[in-house]
Structure prediction request, 614 residues.
Amino acid sequence: MKQIVVKGKQRFEEKTVLENNTTVEFSVIEDSIISENVYIKNSEISCCLIESNSKVVGEKLYGQVIESGYPNLELVTYPKPQEIEKLLERIKENQIDFSKIFGDYPDIIEERKKIYLDVLNRFKDKYGSRKVFLVRVPGRVNLMGRHVDHRGGYVNPITFNREVVLVASSREDDLFKVENYYEEKFPGGEFKLSEELPEKKIKSIDEWRKWTQVKYEERACRGEEKSWINYIKSIVYLQEYYRIDDEWYLRKLRGLDMLFYGDIPMSAGLSSSSALVVATYLATIAANNLKISKKRLIELCGYSEWYVGTRGGCGDHAAMIWGRAGYVSHIGFFPLRISYAKFPSGYRVLVCNSFVEAKKMTGAKDIFNQRVACYEIGFMILKKRYPKLLSEVKYLRDINTLNFDLNTIYSMLKSLPLRASRKEILEILPEEKERLKQIFREHKEPAEGYAIRDVCFFGIAECERSRIVYDILSKGDVEKFGELMKISHDGDRVVKYSDSVEKEWKWSATDDYLDYLIKLPGDNPEKQLFMQPGAYRCSIKETDYLVDLLLRQKGVIGAQLAGAGLGGCVIALVDEKYIKEVVDILYREYYDKYGKPRTGVLICVPIEGAGFVA
Prediction:
């Protein structure tokens, strides 16, 4: 994109047209960057970046990035900070309509109000009487579309009645003072934003990926890689967003005094860590009075979380920011887009915690990043082997039944190696040596090699399932939806339980299996892409046991792993008439039997997404 840079105060006393159809009328412009096709009228613009196809009329803007398409954007909205005593009174006196957030569930509303009051009072004890923002970010349960948001696939989440809560107050400097309600378990800390920034402006996602990997390795050497405050430090990426070059910033962000509370189960696949990132961003945006769209916020949060060393997408952040009470969000990526399907009437989502923690920051991080590497390597091989066929394909999700017939898809998958070592991958892709070196740096080499074909098969099939599920939910076909949940879980499965007998799950996309699929008639249900589990293998024995236990119970429509896996939770869609019986069986056959707390079972309802309590 060509940009016009206007430095030094400029006054235009009559209508003036700059290059590339940029129109300025009766405006003051100082130290700003204005892109193509921008219309500005009766406004004062100081130290801003205005993207293509934006229109600014009658505004005073300082230190903003005005996004393409402005003002026709869904901007993040936020209240003015309130005196903490006033906010406490408003909650106590029922002056806030919480039914808009939680629906017609008075027990949930009372539970949440008690938490908000408690956290506000704790903030007041720590920091004194201040003007504050009260931010709430719910956990998310993704009903379909695991491990595929970063490949362009859809996610289909609900946001549910467990939250990260943040009370924050603006500062005059760039210090972030971070405290936790559970301070004994999560010690507080502080950091200056200016001291955490890269030495030079980050100019691309690849540069951000490399820099965050270096920072992760540095923290690991100091033994600091596990600190929860690293999720708060991810706000560095927002400051980079407002940085034009090494020395020039559109806006230097003000810091915050912060107190966090959370009751989203940790390391359970319900995105408690991403909720910390979203809460930090919302509070910082409000404190700095930033104009930013929800779409841009989602993208920034997704890349921001790379700071902690993981390489996920922005599906969790999108789910939290776009969640709607009573609905399933159908969220697509590249570009970001959202639609909604009504959550099935008469059903509840049961969340069952295995209490095996999925610790992204220790050994599991290697496995998560190995799986992502399989996607990236497999896609590079496919693009190399089918240059004409895949010339317009940008993401793995584009290999679908809208673009290719089934036999072509299965033939392409057959061309991928079932497993390959790093040496073998470099021999296949010598021209990608530098890119592969960066990918390999982010995890240890798997001893058995990279399961490229099985992982890519899962990703392509899961993208298909996550795409078609919107129509299935919109039609109210709950049974079909439950069937897809079961198949999806099989793609992560490692064992199968039948009458409590454990048997290893050995699914693999062998040449013989793919040849079998290719020979089947096109209308054979067994041949369909959405019916193929693939093999991502991020479940564990405990989560497989819970899924199989649930699927044997009357009233359970479907069950599957929740989130990234390697522990954590499973979810089930359950007819509400059978909830009590199903929960009692879970207590007897898992929680009591294996000495796990009964608090591991949550009955969830879809609530409103992230926002402010004001």
